[in-house]
């Protein structure tokens, strides 16, 4: 027997697909940012892949807002933009790995499956010693029948069927060839594209914890599968802000511009309502105040649109694995009348925070011509934010 020198283990990269917006029922934000056990769903897969000894680099495919909510990425990881279809997203990730050799290995994983364990990764990589493609599958436990409308038909032999999960593991060159030849082919996973090349795909045991997050009720299933407590605490924060009324400035309140003889003076757009709301959310997080995060001394915030401050605060909630249950904003002004603008302000705040309209309250009051607001020297705003945060 001749002995060959042991070849070095091939490099392994991961592609994490987090490009979908998760618009199916029950999610107020991209589902990959839903909190699960104190961190966003996406973070579970990212931590599992980045923490695996064999995986030295990764590409996260996600929109900029999702990437920003997860930042910073682990060492060796980069981000790529999603494409129109799933395989366009994989194609963008493959382009980001252009300087990797065909002999490298790659795992393609769907961020909507947070329950990834090192064991599954180990099994798939081991299968690639003798194969170019390996996928995790599970048996079908239920009886299956053909069905037409509400008419149940013949039993389908479930012993010949399997449920397919991710991650799916490939030799990088094989996956490249599969995608290069797949323009216009509709496929729900990568193994299908590889099989079109005539390449054998090895099925390895999957894991029930790789349950896919599709509907809101899947969150409770995943929490059970992953052994996560569902304990949360309620946190309430308040915010208060005042800006001076001056001539020659636009009037921004609650994220909308209101026609008026005067506008509010300040370093940013001086949106007193959004400032109070931003401070309320930061207050509930015990995360300082708006001036800590956006110092008035910093010229980059001169004239800044305040929706950026509010979106930042919402991002801090998501990053903690929390969610905004409710916000209540009161504008205190003698003039202009705020009432006619309340629906537009509510809608705008709901949009900025990515929470349903019924969780946003906007009220207005005068101070009966008393004090600085009564004398029309300025406008004040108060806000209360109620958050749900993971127990830690
Ligand atoms: Mg202010």
Description:
- The chain has two domains: 12-225, Alpha-Beta Complex (Spore Coat Polysaccharide Biosynthesis Protein SpsA, Chain A); 232-390, 2-C-methyl-D-erythritol 2,4-cyclodiphosphate synthase (60s Ribosomal Protein L30, Chain: A, 2-Layer Sandwich).
- It contains twelve helices and 19 strands.
- It has helices spanning 41-50, 64-70, 86-96, 118-127, 172-180, 190-195, 218-225, 272-284, 290-293, 307-319, 342-353, 371-374; strands at 12-17, 35-36, 39-40, 55-61, 77-80, 105-110, 133-138, 144-148, 151-156, 163-164, 168-171, 202-205, 232-247, 251-253, 256-258, 262-265, 323-332, 360-365, 378-390.
- The strands form five sheets. Strands 1, 4, 5, 6, 7, 10, 11 and 12 form an eight-stranded mixed β-sheet that branches. The chain has a five-stranded mixed β-sheet with strand order 16-13-19-17-18.
- Helix 8 (272-284) packs parallel to helix 10.
- The model has no long low-confidence stretch (mean pLDDT 92).
- Bound molecules: magnesium ion.
- Magnesium ion (MG) is lined by residues 241, 243, 266, 272, 275.
Strand-pairing-aware structural class = alpha/beta
CATH topology of the largest domain: Spore Coat Polysaccharide Biosynthesis Protein SpsA, Chain A
Task: Show unreliable segments.
Answer: none
User: What is the tally of beta strands?
Assistant: 19
Please tally the helical runs, counting DSSP H or I stretches of 4 or more residues: 12
Portion of residues in helices? 25-40%
Largest sheet data: 8 strands, mixed
Q: Per CATH, which architecture of the largest domain? A: Alpha-Beta Complex
Could you tell me the strand content as a percent range? 25-35%
Q: For the terminal residues, how far apart are their CA atoms?
A: 59 Å
* General form: elongated
Overall mean pLDDT stands at: 92
Give the class-level CATH name of the largest domain.
Answer: Alpha Beta
- Let me know the CATH homologous superfamily of the largest domain: Spore Coat Polysaccharide Biosynthesis Protein SpsA, Chain A
What binds here, in terms of ligands, is: magnesium ion
What would you report as the Rg, rounded to the nearest angstrom?
A: 26 Å
- As for the number of domains, it is 2
């Amino acid at each position: 027997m001749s002995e060959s020198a042991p070849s070095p283990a091939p490099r392994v990269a991961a592609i994490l697909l987090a490009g979908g917006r998760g618009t199916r029922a029950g999610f107020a934000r991209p589902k990959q940012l839903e909190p699960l056990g104190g961190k966003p769903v996406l973070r579970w897969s990212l931590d599992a892949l980045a923490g695996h000894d064999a995986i030295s680099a990764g590409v996260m495919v996600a929109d900029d807002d999702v990437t920003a909510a997860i930042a910073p990425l682990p060492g060796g990881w980069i981000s790529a933009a999603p494409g129109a279809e799933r395989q366009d997203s994989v194609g963008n990730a493959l382009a980001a790995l252009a300087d990797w050799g065909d002999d490298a290995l790659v795992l393609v994983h769907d961020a909507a499956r947070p329950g990834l364990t090192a064991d599954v990764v180990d099994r798939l990589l081991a299968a690639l010693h003798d194969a170019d493609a390996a996928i995790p599958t599970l048996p079908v436990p239920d009886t299956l029948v053909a069905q037409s409308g509400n008419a149940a038909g013949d039993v389908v032999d479930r012993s010949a069927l399997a449920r397919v999960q991710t991650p799916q593991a490939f030799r990088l060159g094989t996956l490249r060839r599969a995608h290069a030849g797949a323009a216009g082919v509709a496929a729900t996973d990568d193994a299908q594209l590889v099989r079109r090349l005539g390449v054998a795909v090895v099925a390895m045991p999957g894991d029930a914890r790789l349950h896919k997050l599709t509907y809101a009720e899947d969150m409770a299933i995943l929490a059970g599968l992953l052994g996560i407590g569902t304990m949360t605490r309620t946190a309430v924060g308040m915010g208060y802000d005042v800006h001076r009324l001056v001539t020659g400035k636009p009037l921004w309140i609650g994220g909308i511009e209101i026609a008026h003889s005067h506008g509010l003076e300040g370093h940013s757009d001086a949106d007193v309502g959004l400032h109070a709301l931003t401070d309320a959310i930061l207050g509930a997080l015990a995360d300082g105040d708006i001036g800590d995060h956006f110092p008035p001394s910093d010229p980059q915030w001169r004239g800044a649109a305040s929706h950026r401050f509010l979106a930042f605060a919402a991002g801090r909630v998501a990053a903690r694995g929390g969610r905004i249950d409710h916000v209540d904003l009161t504008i205190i002004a003698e003039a202009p009348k705020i009432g006619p603008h309340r629906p537009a302000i509510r809608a705008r705040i709901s949009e900025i925070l990515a929470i349903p309209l019924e969780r946003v309250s906007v009220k207005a009051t005068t101070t009966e011509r008393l004090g600085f607001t009564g004398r029309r020297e300025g406008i004040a705003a108060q806000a209360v934010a109620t958050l749900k945060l993971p127990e830690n």
